[in-house]
Design brief:
Blueprint (H helix, E strand, L loop, with lengths): L2 H36 L8 H22 L4 H19 L4 H19 L11 H26 L4 H25 L2 H21 L9 H35 L1
């Protein structure tokens, strides 16, 4: 097989892989569309709503598991499962702290995944160091700004340290995603932070109620989860391609 034939074969393989990846994500897209079709601002909290809300995340977990096998269980797959638990908890306002705890565990599992060998870190550069600093400054500034509103919460004794810990965890996740220098992973992590900031602004009444506030939170949330999942699937694909190249 000459060089031209090898390149043509590689292109076909990549095209087939991309098609297979898209097909594996179709249940997620359909479930997300179902959520936005069925959801209304006055839809009562129920098991049905929790199931519809968490279904896209669980389907993403299934797609990553089928693509990567067991190596992502203590990583992105586990993070997606805990995210689905958080989705269910947030349906009922009285379980907000439980939901936040579930998402904190999800971010810790994402962070663990970003430290794995398939996310081989590149050497630091000036722009990554700058982004680390920006993330830390934004996180600290946001928590400082949010603090007076947390003090007004009926559960302020729990909420103040809990939100502080959550901000630290999600900032760490963003820093480790930056460290990988993988486009899907980095963008997904940053969008996740935006989604959480938007949710916090509404939850703690920092801003006046926004007509489509929940839509903004959920669109950015599902997009972030999709990008992180695709990033993990691509990371395994790149690692496998590299292993094959070394054997040739």
């Amino acid at each position: 097989m000459d060089i031209l034939e090898t390149h043509a074969y590689d292109r076909r393989q990549k095209r087939n892989t991309s098609c297979a990846l898209l097909l594996s994500l179709m249940p997620f897209f359909l479930a997300s569309a179902m959520y936005f079709y069925l959801w209304t601002p006055h839809f009562p909290a129920s098991i049905t709503l929790a199931a519809v809300k968490s279904a896209p995340t669980l389907l993403l977990a299934a797609a990553v598991l089928s693509w990567n096998g067991g190596q992502s269980v203590l990583g992105v797959v586990g993070g997606l499962v805990f995210s689905a638990v958080g989705d269910c908890c947030l349906v009922w306002p009285e379980f907000f702290l439980h939901g936040m705890a579930a998402f904190a565990l999800a971010h810790l599992l994402y962070s663990f995944a970003f430290l794995s060998s398939r996310y081989e870190a590149y050497s630091s550069s000036s722009w990554t160091g700058l982004l680390y600093l920006i993330l830390v400054v934004i996180a600290g500034g946001f928590y400082t700004y949010l603090f007076p509103f947390l003090r007004k919460d009926p559960n302020s004794d729990l909420m103040v340290p809990a939100v502080g810990g959550y901000v630290v965890i999600i900032t760490l996740m963003g820093i480790l995603a930056t460290r990988t220098r993988r486009g899907f992973t980095l963008l997904g992590s940053l969008i996740f932070i935006v989604s959480d900031l938007s949710l916090a602004m509404q939850q703690f009444k920092v801003t006046a109620p926004v007509e489509h506030g929940n839509t903004v939170v959920m669109v950015t949330y599902y997009l972030a989860q999709l990008l992180i999942s695709v990033g993990d699937m691509k990371a395994v694909e790149i690692k496998n391609d590299f292993a094959k190249w070394k054997q040739t």
